[in-house]
Amino acid sequence: MSKKLIVLLVLGLFALALGLTACGQEPPAPPKVLKVGSDTSFAPFEFQDDKSKDYVGFDMDLIKALGKQMGYEVQVQGMNFDGLIPALEGGNIDLIVSAMTITPERAEKVTFSKPYYKSGLTIVVRPDNDSIKEFKDLDGKRIAVQIGSTGANEAKKVKNATITTFNTVPETFLELRNGGVDAVINDRPVNEYYIMQMGGKDGKIVGQPLDAEDYGIAINKSNTALAQEVDKALDELKANGEYAKIYKTWFGKEPPQ
After folding, report:
1. In terms of C-beta density within 10 A (0-12 exposed, 13-18 middle, 19 or more buried), how is residue 120 classed?
2. Pairing relationship of beta strands 32-38 and 72-78 according to DSSP bridges
3. Which sign, positive or negative, has the C-alpha torsion 49, 40, 212, 88?
4. What does pTM read for this prediction?
5. Which residues contact 174 (CB under 8 A, 6 or more apart)?
6. Under 8 Å CB-to-CB from 186, ≥6 apart: which residues?
7. DSSP string, 117-146
8. 96 with 85: CB under 8 angstroms?
9. Exposure string over 129-142, b if 16+ CB within 10 A, otherwise e
10. ∠ CA(34), CA(39), CA(43), 5° rounding?
């Protein structure tokens, strides 16, 4: 047998061995995907960056960190707030991260994670409005709220008020700026962010917070395993400092203990 033939035979056997080894390897498992629903018009919790068009905000950073901690690839779907729970119940999404207040009514339909943010409702009026100083001054006034929100529920308690509902929070602020309503009832951190972004020229907060509210991540009631995963990962992010880092990025201070 010639040297050339021997070399070719060895190379052939080597190639065959490589082929058999490759055939024995299992293909990598596809990444686990977490489909997340969010009303992405609720800055600073979730909104679309004007330049990158990516969804950004406190909730967006938090759910990405939670997904990484749990081993999931996170895919965010933007939708109107009042459509989130129906989408979750229908199995179109796995969970909701959308600054959603934990309420008894919602808890009948979904499972909430441990609270991850404490908020409250406040009233926003135009800077030149001195007639509304607290909640009782809203009697008979025109109020803008987001549909399906706790602010909308609170507005229903106002006597003789004319309530206008909108799909998104920015629409409520636009209506206030245009003079179509006298006040907006909405979550405190969102109101504060809006006023800061506008330099205080389009609105001011009046009165004390109407309520203390906890935000939670909503999961389908049938998915108890995912609910446990979320709570475990949330505890881990708080323990390793990642939660505090995200909180400080968006609110400029350490989270309350």
Report:
1. middle
2. parallel
3. negative
4. 0.80
5. none
6. 121, 122, 124, 145, 146, 149, 151, 169, 172
7. EEE-EEEEE-TT--S--SGGGGTT-EEEEE
8. yes
9. beebeebebbeebb
10. 110
What does the pLDDT profile of the chain (257 residues) look like in tens digits? 455 544 444 445 455 444 544 455 666 667 799 999 999 999 999 999 999 999 999 999 999 999 999 999 999 999 999 999 999 999 999 999 999 999 999 999 999 999 999 999 999 999 999 999 999 999 999 999 999 999 999 999 999 999 999 999 999 999 999 999 999 999 999 999 998 888 888 899 999 988 788 999 999 999 999 999 999 999 999 999 999 999 999 998 899 87
Encoding tokens for residue 250?
């968006």
DSSP string, 42-89: ETTTEEE-TTT--EESHHHHHHHHHHHHHTEEEEEEE--GGGHHHHHH
